[in-house]
């Protein structure tokens, strides 16, 4: 049993250890959002400010049929720049622990969590695809353990600039995920 001066030293030491752990030990790990794991339904709306930029020289390399298809896609995108989709996804505890649930799963992207609390996450990302660099910001808010919403803003810089904004609302369906 500790007495007097030794007890005070032990208490001070223990306090320093706990403080050091809280300051350094948790700083490396994002705090997970307070949402349930399992099956979620996610409704996403994507809006693009401009047509898909076509890199210089690409149109000249296409066959007449490929060029016509590319131009048709650009026209279709201008006619209906907003697209909504509904998908089901399985949210695992590992995704929550990494701090980035509901994020786009693209191997060409690298995301870094900037802030992370039990109710909000913000991350910045860079994607490189076919020589084109896109920078993005991801924001997610847990409205409740069974409801979340967020947005992803992507800025693509080529000869012209294209901004794509995706917003989503996610609703928890159940604890178990079936093979989707």
Structural description of this entry:
It is a single chain. By secondary structure, this protein is of the alpha+beta class. It is 27% helix and 43% strand. It contains 4 helices and 7 strands, in the order αβααβαβββββ. Strands 2-1-7-6-5-4-3 form a 7-stranded antiparallel β-sheet. A hairpin with a 3-residue loop joins strand 6 and strand 7 (161-174). The protein is elongated, with a radius of gyration of 23 Å. The protein starts with a helix and ends in a 6-residue tail after the last strand. The relative contact order is 0.21. Residues 5-28 have low confidence and may be disordered.
Task: Provide a compact summary of the structure.
The protein has helices at 4-25, 58-61, 64-79, 93-98, and strands at residues 38-48, 82-91, 109-116, 120-129, 132-144, 147-157, 161-174.
